[in-house]
């Protein structure tokens, strides 16, 4: 019985697919990566301006409670994190890429947390911390993202990214912090050192 429970626990936390196993041994095919199936009529730069289920203020349209881009990013993270190459198929994919990179930064912070309360505080601080947007020197994927056309669009883009950063951090605390131990789950911490697309949102030297 105990062996069955252990197996169930493992299968629940890991992506149970041949694709995941292939990535573990370094045979990821960029065509196998997960992509967003969300669409939006508007965009900021060349990122889709998608509805978000959140209480944080920002330019994103309010969600209707159905799956949003943050749900997708968290759900696909453990599979997509292994890919060094990723083909952008839609404007929503650029939001998915950004969130995947941001989740990694969140995990780096959460691995040092000794309680859920501390995790929530650290995610709040990270969400509003200074960060680079497309077109700025510190942004790691300027070749894939259009820089803002003007100051107004730059302000809107920064507000949009901050909004999704804040909501993502809030949701990750619930996912990552194990209620049984009040510490980060090992099933998430094992991905901390992985680098999606071999990129990082962190400033060099951090």
Overview of this structure, please?
The protein has 206 residues and is mostly helical. The chain has a single domain, classed as Actin-related protein 2/3 complex subunit 3 (Arp2/3 complex 21 kDa subunit ARPC3, Orthogonal Bundle). Strand 1 and strand 2 form a beta hairpin. Helix 3 packs across helix 4 and helix 4 packs across helix 6. The N terminus is likely disordered. It is found in: Cell projection; Cytoplasm, Cytoskeleton; Nucleus.
| Strand order in the sheet with the most strands | 1-2
- Counting DSSP H or I runs of 4 or more residues, the number of helices is 7
Distance between the termini: 45 Å
SSE arrangement, N to C: HHEEHHHHEEH
Multimeric state: single chain
Q: Structural class of the secondary elements? A: mainly alpha
* Number of structural units classed as domains: 1
Give the proportion of residues in helices. 40-55%
CATH superfamily: Actin-related protein 2/3 complex subunit 3
Rg for CA atoms: 17 Å
Report the principal-axis shape: globular
List the main descriptive attributes of the protein structure presented here.
206 residues; mainly alpha; Arp2/3 complex 21 kDa subunit ARPC3; two-stranded antiparallel sheet; 7 helices; 46% helix; 4% strand; globular
Gist?
The protein has 206 residues and is mostly helical.
């Amino acid at each position: 019985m105990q062996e069955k429970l252990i197996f169930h626990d493992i299968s629940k936390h890991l992506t149970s697919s041949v694709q995941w196993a292939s990535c573990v041994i370094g045979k990821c095919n960029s065509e196998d990566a997960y992509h967003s199936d969300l669409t939006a009529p508007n965009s900021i730069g060349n990122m889709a301006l998608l509805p978000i289920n959140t209480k944080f203020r920002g330019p994103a349209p309010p969600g209707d409670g159905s799956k949003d881009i943050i749900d997708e990013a968290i759900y696909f993270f453990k599979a997509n994190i292994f890919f060094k190459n990723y083909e952008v198929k839609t404007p929503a994919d650029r939001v998915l890429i950004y969130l995947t990179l941001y989740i990694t930064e969140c995990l780096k912070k959460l691995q040092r947390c000794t309680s859920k309360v501390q995790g929530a505080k650290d995610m709040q601080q990270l969400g509003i911390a200074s960060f680079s947007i497309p077109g700025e020197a510190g942004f790691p994927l300027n070749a894939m993202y259009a820089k803002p056309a003007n100051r107004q669009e730059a302000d809107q883009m920064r507000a949009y990214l901050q909004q999704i950063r804040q909501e993502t951090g809030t949701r990750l605390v619930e996912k990552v912090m194990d209620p049984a131990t009040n510490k980060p789950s090992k099933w998430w911490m094992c991905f901390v050192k992985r680098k999606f697309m071999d990129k990082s949102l962190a400033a060099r030297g951090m």
